[in-house]
Every structure is written in C-alpha cells, then in structure tokens.
Design a protein that fits this description.
This protein is α/β, with parallel strands linked by helices and 257 residues long. The chain has a single domain, classed as Alpha-Beta Complex (Spore Coat Polysaccharide Biosynthesis Protein SpsA, Chain A). The chain contains nine helices and nine strands. Strands 1, 2, 3, 4, 5, 6, 7, 8 and 9 form a nine-stranded mixed sheet that branches. Helix 2 links the parallel strand 2 and strand 3.
Length: 257
C-alpha cells in the first residue's frame, strides 16, 4: 500500500525518558506507507531535541521543528497543518510504542470506509494490559470516578465511560478518542483547523473528536494496537492538575447543551 501517504506529528516537551523507544519503534515498523514524521519540540530543557537530531535527524522521513516557547499540545500539532500533503495524518504521543505497522492497517481500513474521519486503535500498557480510557463524551461524574479510581477494577461509571458495556472486540463508533494515538483524514484535519488552541493540555482530544463527529464518524478499531506508557502525571503534579481543571471547565462551557 505504498501508494498511500501518511504523516504523523509528535509534540515533545522534556520527553527524554520515552522518546527514543517511541521514535525507534515507529520508524522501524512504519514501512507499508509513504511516511513523513514531524516532531515539534516545545522548548524542552532536558536535551530532547538535541538527542532527536543526533539519532534520527539523518532519516529523510523525519522533520524536527524546534520552538522557543511551550504554548501547549494543540498549538504544537497545529503548526504542521500547512505542511501536510498526506492522505491521512496521525497524532502521536511521545510515550507510545508500536510493535507492527499499525498505520498501514489503519489507513487501509479508513480507505475501505470513507465515512470515517477519525480512527482510534486499541490502547494497552507496555505489559499488555488494556487501558481503561473514555470512549463516551466526558461528563463530570465520569471524571470524578476516574480521579478517585484506585488500583482495583473500574466501577460502574468508569465502565460506562470506557464503553466496557459494549462489544469492543469489533470496530464501533465512539464519541471520544484519546489523543495519545489517532489517525485522521488530513483534509478533514485541515478543514476543522486542527485542535482548539484554547486548551493548553487535556480535553483537546475530546474536543477534536466531537468536532470530527459533526461531519463524519469517529471509530474505535481494535484490530490494531499501540502501547502507551501513560504516567497520569496530573494525579502527581499540582500544576498539571490546575491545567486539567481549566481545560475541563472550558470544554464544558464550549459544549454545554
């Protein structure tokens, strides 16, 4: 399927801990499509852009964009919109690992289903456990249940939020896709203007999925899988927790009713 062009973008900020494995596995496994990867660094101070340039800068598929400020996840991803010439575009976190050519498989599925605008794969922890991620629109009760969740099995609200009451062994329409890895039609991504940049971090993926659903389908595709480290930093970092709350309030104001 090398006649299919796929672009991807990773926004980095102090990601030295994970970025080597993310880029190594992604570039090694993505062979079946014409692939271009943009890496936008939001003024990292830990040597992330220097490391990427030294190890991956010689790969013609890789373009590194270094910024002088950190204006957030959405701003970083939107920077590449005018550069895109691909058929499909992937939004990828800097802590994701792939173990096969998921972009080839996902692009083929979207080609076969032209009514799909956004495709979300199965997300697992590196040890193989499934991640319990929201697939329905965020609601305050879901978010509280997620915040209070311990290490046990998800409760009724989290099961509802993650659509664990549905058959997730087959492709199905979802309301909410995680921004750690998603594939969109590039024309659609450009048409909607990318991410809403009022979000610095958090909820921009829920917002984007909801915007996509106004004109096309958002679909969960369990036949492909990526592995996400997912540190849940907002539970540990008070600054990130405040950012998450601001994003949540903006999301609910924007989509009220």
């Amino acid at each position: 399927m090398t006649d299919c062009s796929v672009s991807g973008c990773i926004v980095t900020y102090n990601n030295m801990r994970t970025i080597d494995k993310t880029l190594s596995t992604l570039l090694d496994c993505t062979r079946g499509v014409d692939f271009k990867l943009y890496i936008v660094d939001n003024a990292s101070t830990d040597g992330t852009p220097q490391f990427i340039r030294e190890k991956f800068g010689g790969d013609p598929r890789v373009e590194i964009i270094e910024r002088q400020s950190n204006d957030g996840f959405g701003v970083g991803h939107n920077l590449v919109i005018d550069r895109l010439t691909s058929e499909f575009h992937a939004v990828i976190n800097p802590d994701v690992i792939v173990r096969d050519d998921v972009l080839l498989e996902m692009a083929a599925y979207m080609r076969a289903h032209p009514d799909i605008g956004l495709l979300s794969p199965r997300i697992r922890f590196p040890d193989g456990r499934d991640q319990v991620l929201g697939k329905r629109d965020p609601k305050l009760r879901y978010l509280i249940a997620s915040r209070l969740r311990g290490k046990g099995e998800p409760n009724r609200l989290l099961r509802e939020y993650a659509m664990l009451d549905a058959d997730l062994s087959v492709p199905c329409d979802i309301e909410n896709a995680t921004g750690c890895f998603m594939l969109l039609r590039t024309d659609l991504f450009r048409q909607i203007g990318g991410f809403d940049t009022h979000y610095f971090l958090y909820f921009e993926d829920s917002d984007l999925t909801r915007t996509v659903r106004q004109t096309s389908r958002a679909v969960y595709y369990p036949d492909t899988c990526v592995y996400h480290v997912w540190g849940r930093e907002s539970k540990k970092n008070s600054r990130l927790r405040r950012i998450q709350i601001r994003s949540m309030l903006y999301y609910f104001r924007k989509w009220r009713g």
